[in-house]
Structures are given as structure tokens and as C-alpha cells.
């Protein structure tokens, strides 16, 4: 059964398989705090159509309440444990919230969604009293599609994630430096090699950039996707990398 992946920008993707639409970390804003969208048009209304939404962690560029408010009432939201308590606005959106930890599984139509660990600070920033784990998700149907959210490399990553066919991997960020718990293009290629996926889509780059910093290391904004292609060719030569433009889709079969 083929899986279709659409990249809307940043960590926002639609994963469609077996007639089920999943949306990851929706961010539909032109501006978020000190960030503004510097590339790609805002996603169209159909980007907010989903059977379920996967939220990887509570940072505002991944759990963005105004963007979640665009979802139809009753849409299922799968989020890290403690999300409702840490982000009170979630409870006012009329969504069906399922909170999970690594190892939990959720059925969405014909698909099985498995939460897996991530190496990232998952709390609601700047600093909140409640902590929630950062997660990735493996969507299992005819194909196994891994959405990493935000993560760094960690020991046992391949075992924790398990076998996957398609990997949606973060390769950059939204500023001139990446903090701990992130993948750059080189480390993302290392992750791809460890996971053994035969298809990869780079995400989390080339969309948002701090206001007033356009001239500060612009290479970090533009280049991660191309760098990932180059590193993956060396470290994971059997994998096909699909570097999508904003709003573009790719249709993949398991094993491709």
C-alpha cells in the first residue's frame, strides 16, 4: 500500500495511507514570536484536514494552539503525556486528545501509530512547571513511516524506533545555531543510515528564520536540505532522498 507524504514547511507534513490522513506538528502562521516565514506560501485550508494530528513535543513551533484551532472540532490529537495540563488552551479547542508516552500505540482507522522516544527537551518553554516527553511516531500500515519530530542522535535509536521504510527527519532549525537535541544534515544522515530506511524526506529547515537575522549565516537557512542529500549519498547510499519544496508531495511504496 503506497504512502503519500506532503511537506508544508518546518515540521508540518501530511502522511496519507489507506485512506487515512495524519498531520504532524501543524504550524500555519506567518509569524511566531521572533520568527517569520521566509520561504513557502502558507499552507492552504486543505492542509488542516486530517483524521488525526501527531504532536511531537510542546515547543510552540510544534504545538501551536492557533494552528490547532484550524482543525475541525472532534479531530483526534495525539500528544505527549501532560500536554493538556501544560498547555491549558488545548482543552478549549474541542479536539479529542489522546496523551501518550514512548511505547504506547494508538489505532487511527487502518493505521497503527506507535510513539517512540526522542532526545529533545519536550517541555513547554520558556520554563513551565510540568514536563512532557519529546516523542517521535512510527505510522504503521502497508509502509512504516517514521516522523522524528525534534531529536538528536541517541544510543539505541534504531532499536527504539524499529524497522521503517520512510523517515521524515529534521535536518536544520530556525536559527543560526542548533542547540542540543537536534539533528543537522550530517547527523540526520547518520540517523538514516542507522535506521535503514530506503526513503527519506528532510524537514524542519528552510521555512522560519528570526526577524532581523536574514544576513546572519544565511547558509544555515538555505542549505540543510541539499547537505542532507549529499551526506545521505555517502552514509546511506541505498536510501532515496526526496527533497520536497513547500507544498510538494511524494508517493512511495514500502521498500522504495
TrEMBL record:
A Pfam family reported for this protein in Swiss-Prot or TrEMBL: Lactamase_B_2
Limits of the Metallo-beta-lactamase domain: 21-205
Coiled coil segments of this chain: none
Protein name: Membrane protein
